[in-house]
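Running this now, will post back.
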Amino acid sequence: MDSTDSSQNSIENRYCFRSTITRMRSSAADAETDHVINIMEGNENRLASMHKKISEPPRLLTMGAGGRSCCIFRVPKSMVDVNGKAYQPRIISIGPYHRGKPQLRMIEEHKWRYLGLLLKRMQEKGLGLEDFFKAIQPLELKARECYSETIELGSDEFLEMMVLDGCFIIELFRKVGNLTPLEPDDPIISMLWILPFIYRDFLRLENQIPFFILQCLFDLSKMPGEKRGQSLSMLALEFFNNAMLRPDEVISKYHDLKGQHLLDLVRASFIPSEQNPDPCKVCPPTRMIHPVSKLRRSGIKLNPGKADSFLVIKFRRGVIEMPPITIDDFMSSLLLNCVAFEQCHGSSTKHFTVYATLLDCLVNTYKDVEYLCESNIIENYFGSESEVARFINDMGKETAFDVENCYLSKLFRDVHQYYRNSWHVQWASFKHTYFDTPWSFISAVAALILLLLTIAQTFYTIYSAYKPENS
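Update: finished.
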């Protein structure tokens, strides 16, 4: 009986053990299945996220940013790191990139005041605010394509910005150009510090609206009593000429000039039409031109040239002719923003970039700037010679262009070949050493006289010694 019970207990134990093992295996299989399901669900979520990112177009640098129509860019961070806040508006925002910033709110309030003054005049023509919206509405998509990043504004908000900013610019042009009457004590005009900042802010790359928007608003708001033939381009160039001070006859040549925005318009007015790229058959060296100090020792002179634009640079018979340029707050800002525009806009010429590189090559220390100032090539209202040298060297950093096809390629090649001519270098080095200053010249003449007297004394000593013997 006991053996039967023990046998039965043994069978029950084996059955329980097998059941436990079966349940453990089943639990392990279920856990593995759940893990596989979790992995699959995670993979599906990851794949869905990846597919979503693939289908989304780039927003910070749109696909259209590389096209000809895109012309208003965010300045690359590499250039911002070098040149600081030269690309940021100081008192006024134009366009979407800096819209709504608290530090720019002061002039933002005056935009609405100027728009109200313009609309008050438009009552004579029977036009209202709605007419300005209707005029630019067909241009909205084209205007959005001018920006290198997606503008996160609704249609109404975007059009409002274009009308407000565009009308302010045009109204200010007309007031400064004496085409419309000035309000008594208008702070924009009467406070001396505001307009110089506006001149610079209107010409910052990130602070632009398309020129065709300005042209549309200008044509619509033109009054019958305004000067005949006064184009928007002419009005804009005359406005900025208050800071550039170019001769009136030079500005008048660009009556029909067009640009993609105000910065491009002013930039285009400096680009010479007679200087076309001259491709180099032999690739020039990496350092295309040596600093002023080395060029002078090799016999190359730098003289002020005569031209309408400082970009017209020539090299003849050992002399580099460079038209004078005034370096001040306005011109430094203009140069930096023109270079930034050329670096971002693939279809534009690279005149300002090449010019900046040339200056960067010529200037190595403050003494090079000092010589250029003494030669009336640079007129310095920027700061000390060291500050100008630092600005010029920073302006040439983080830039790229095709040296073989740039507009100064022939000049780079000719100057380099002249510099390598050993006869020029030796003769110029001799002149630089002995005739560079009056004291060195006097010392050289004194040494020459002493040498001649020594030779004469030696000759007469020898002659007197031999003469008695011969006689």
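The two ends are 170 Å apart (CA to CA). More later if anyone needs it.
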